[in-house]
Amino acid sequence: MEKKLKSFERLLIIMDELRQKCPWDQKQTLESLRHLTIEETYELADAILNNDPEEIKGEIGDLFLHLVFYSKIASEKGWFDVADVLEKVCDKLVYRHPHIYGNVKVSSEEEVKANWEKLKLAEKTNNKTKKSVLEGVPVSLPALVKASRIQSKVSGVGFDWENQNQVWEKIEEEMIELKDEVNKVSDNDNNHKRIEEEYGDLLFALVNYGRFINCNPEDTLEKANRKFISRFQSMEKLSEKQNIKFHDLTPKEMNELWNKVKLEEKI
User: Fold this and answer.
1) What single-letter DSSP state applies at residue 267?
2) Which of 80, 124, 217, 220 would be 84's cystine partner, CB 3.0–4.6 Å?
């Protein structure tokens, strides 16, 4: 523990020195750091998918720096300092884990999540009690992540399907509704809006199903993206070895290359 505290203290000291002596660090504001923090978060996400411990360690460090940086700027404004930040999150964790720090009894992860959402709803923010369990979902979240968070939050207060078969039936229902709209002979804007709506409903249902089969939609889609990129680039290399420009291949020849790449992956 002493080593951890010393390392954190060292980071705080360095942050103070950078704000005093470095022209770039002196210039930074909460707003100027915002997009950099988003970028760092995605870099950490990439490192996790790459399963690279050294890369993960480095990216976590970068995020630590940003959090300390925000706290330093806030302290200069007289708002709060890093100690206030840490105390607040500690208080929050104790409050939201009454089964650890109180007398509440739970028997499953689901009960923990349900209690968590109920406690969040009851908390007061800016002297106002939250009126909706969904108020905590950031507006700027990517749509796929937002769908997942929405479904998780409403599930925490009991609004959910009973089992994954019900969700699958919903997916099949949404597929039929989408297909019906696509098959309608119409080019008007209203028809396209209905297609978009049904397509969105299908995506939302698929995200929900992922929760029931323990597949995070963002992670699994990114893995699918990477797999496709890898396979497609392997196709391009095979085409190059055959001295054929890729865009000159017929669809049938492209499909043959695709199947060849897939077969080689299994060997």
Assistant:
1) -
2) 80
Backbone angles phi, psi at 125, to 5 degrees: -120, 125
**Two tokens at 245?**
């420009």
The set of long-range contacts for 202-207, using a CB threshold of 8 Å and a minimum separation of 24, is 202/171, 202/174, 202/175, 202/178, 203/144, 203/147, 204/147, 205/167, 205/170, 205/171, 205/174, 206/171, 207/144, 207/147, 207/148, 207/151
Pinpoint the alpha helices (H) of the chain. Answer: 2-21, 23-27, 30-50, 53-76, 82-95, 98-101, 109-122, 143-156, 164-183, 189-212, 217-241, 251-266
> Contacts for 108-116 with beta carbons within 8 Å, 24 or more apart?
113/152, 113/155, 113/156, 114/156, 114/157, 114/158, 116/156
pLDDT tens profile 160-191:
999 999 999 999 999 999 999 999 876 677 78
To the question of pTM greater than 0.70 for the whole model, the response is no
Span of 48-57, 58-67, 106-115 with lowest mean pLDDT: 106-115
Q: Give the DSSP H or E segment for 244.
A: none
User: 102: part of which helix (H) or strand (E)?
Assistant: none
The SS3 call for residue 65 is: helix
Give how far Cα 153 sits from Cα of 4, 116, 126, 160, 213, Å.
Answer: 34, 9, 21, 10, 17
